[in-house]
Structure formats: structure tokens, C-alpha cells
Amino acid sequence: QVQLVESGGGSVQPGGSLRLSCAASGRTFSRYDMGWFRQAPGKEREFVAAINWSGDSTYYADSVKGRFTISRDNAKNTMYLQMNSLKPDDTAVYYCAADYYSPKSSRRWMRDDTYDYWGQGTQVTVSS
Question: Where are the beta strands (DSSP E) in the chain?
């Protein structure tokens, strides 16, 4: 079992930045592939970014490429999402997720049913 806790959400103006963190406990963090998803009101949960267990492979949704950066620090059992140039469309609850490391196709990284463990989410609001 892996427990995940997100933090770092908040309210920011368009063009601003936030850094989300996902702290993991319970199992060996470095054995888990990790992802960020988000869900806006009235919309389905969608993929944002993912990172493999070692941190040397990353994946992004087209909507955030060039603006968001996913990273992890296995020594600190923590994953991060640096979000820059934020837009109102980025407003959502952001969730981190974990899946025991395994080979995955590009499509599998982006599916929420790939991940077995989820945090409770942190709200990000982008508004002027």
C-alpha cells in the first residue's frame, strides 16, 4: 500500500506559477511510476504528466507541454509538478497517482486506470 498526499495548491493569477508536491509513504517510493492528473468541475479527470520510477522518462499532455515540469526526488519520497504560465483552463483539482513500476506504452501512461494508488487532491485556481 502506498499513501499519497498532495500539497502546494492555491489561487494564482494568469501567468503565475505554482509548485505541487506529492509525498509518498508506506512502500519503496523508487519502485513506483508516478503521474499527475486533474479534474475540473463538470469534466472528466484528465492526464497531466507522468514520470517513471527512476526519473529519466517523462510524459506530458499536449496542453501543458512547455509550461509544466514533472520531477521526483526518490531520497525524499516526493514527486513535484512545477507549473508555469498558468491559464484559467488549468483550474482543477490536481491528483497524484502511483503504479508499481512496469513497462508501459505511451497510451498506458496517460490512462487513469493504470494507477492503483491516488492522493486526495489539491485545488489549483487560476483567475484574475
Answer: 3-7, 10-12, 18-25, 32-39, 46-51, 58-60, 68-73, 78-83, 92-100, 117-118, 122-126
118 three-class SS = strand
Dist CA 82 CA 114 (whole Å): 23
Residue 7 vs residues 55, 78, 101, 107: alpha-carbon distances, Å: 20, 11, 23, 27
Calpha distance 5→33 (Å, rounded)? 16
CA distances from 77 to 19, 25, 29, 45, 80 (A): 16, 7, 6, 25, 10
| Model pLDDT for residues 52-85, shown as the tens digit of each residue | 999 999 999 999 999 999 999 999 999 999 999 9
Q: Can you tell me which residue has the cell 523508487?
A: 30
Q: Is 107 helix (H, G, I), strand (E, B) or coil?
A: helix
Q: For 18-29, what is each residue's pLDDT tens digit? A: 999 999 998 799
